[in-house]
């Protein structure tokens, strides 16, 4: 009735001032203050409750501390309710914070009184009730901060070896609320206290919740930088499980729901702990997860970066023989067990080259790149080349992929040479391919393919083939004979197989040596070539016959040269046993039957 009478006033200030005076006058005449406080609290007159409780606490009775504890609890509840009203009326944040701080002080007083006067179980029950009340009634944006204050203060009243579980309750709630407030250092400390007191299921739940929230918040530095101690294995298990049970999407709202983000976090976590092989395994797992979708440039770039990171971190393993890890193939319906595969550094480099080749093909007319093998990527690279500034780079990449997948480079060379033989405009491609292959077998494969296709041999190709190796000219002569190309065979023999240096200085140098000139010639092939030239007749082969005659003359001169050098060397050795200057000079001069001007 008193409250209803003052509620008729229009001025709120008058109501508050006069109401407080009237309540104080009433309190002087009322003896059952706890009952009055309960009644006013039930009617949600929170201002009146504060006045009643303060008056009652300032005029204690002879009763025990239970009344004081009860009134203090009512004061805390009234302050929380007043903060809720202020929050709903959009009062200033400072005002709401002040009210809640007073409420927490009242609750701490209640816990202190409970701890002094009652049993530990009762104090623990009071802590549970107050914490639950704050969680349910306090304004949500402010609740976590002030509950943390209450829990920190309550640690004074609960020893670490209590049997009621209050300490575990406190640290568990501190952990959850610190995460809500993004107080990660405090949450980390609380987590270690939870580990020391809680069961394994609770610990697993807390670790999982902590790691995933850090992942969603983008705080990779916290996950990687914290010293987890005995929880290292649990953190790794959480990341492994989360990566295996989420989709490998690039566009996401929550990082914890993407295997790409989780595996990257796992990689950083393992590198920080110097577990380089396991970190490489995580990046390779990311590459494999994206393989079914590897037809978009963004996916291919993520794959490339993952393989590059795996390659670099695997190189950090101290012992080269330990630079490998195990990859588990995905399950299929017709297999009961998952096959295991050893992945080495060379495997990573091979897969990286293939991904780079796919990136070169993204803008071409190649359709689906996902699942393409290395040989298919090589074929597509060579097929979609254009004579621009990137052709040399693409050809070099194709050759590198072919070598990495143990594909015979000659197969690639034959394909390009065949294309050159039956079309036009690809000579530059063949040149670039042979230049990057830089192998005598590659040049011979190109020549063989062109001869099989009855295509003319470019001069640059034969010159490069001869210069590719010391015995390439002999192998090239054999190819010419196999395909019946006698003109080119005779020209090759004259230019590259029979020695040209038969001059007097060369003779003197050879005669001074103890052995004959060391120049190997394929006599069997030369005999076969000369025999084939002798069997060919007709007016249209006159140039061939002329060149064959020149070859015979060159061979005869060379054999005579070798014979004279052997004779001169023999005479020199004989006179060395009886050395006289005049005899050596006359013998050397008289034993030279060749006319140097004619040779």
Automatic annotation (TrEMBL):
Residues 142-316 form the NUP160 middle TPR domain. GO terms for molecular function: structural constituent of nuclear pore. Residues 580-599 have a biased composition (Low complexity). Transmembrane segments: none annotated. It comes from the Eukaryota. GO terms for cellular component: nuclear pore. Residues 572-599 are annotated as: Disordered. Residues 435-566 form the NUP160 C-terminal TPR domain. PANTHER family: NUCLEAR PORE COMPLEX PROTEIN NUP160. This is Uncharacterized protein. It comes from Aphanomyces astaci (Crayfish plague agent).
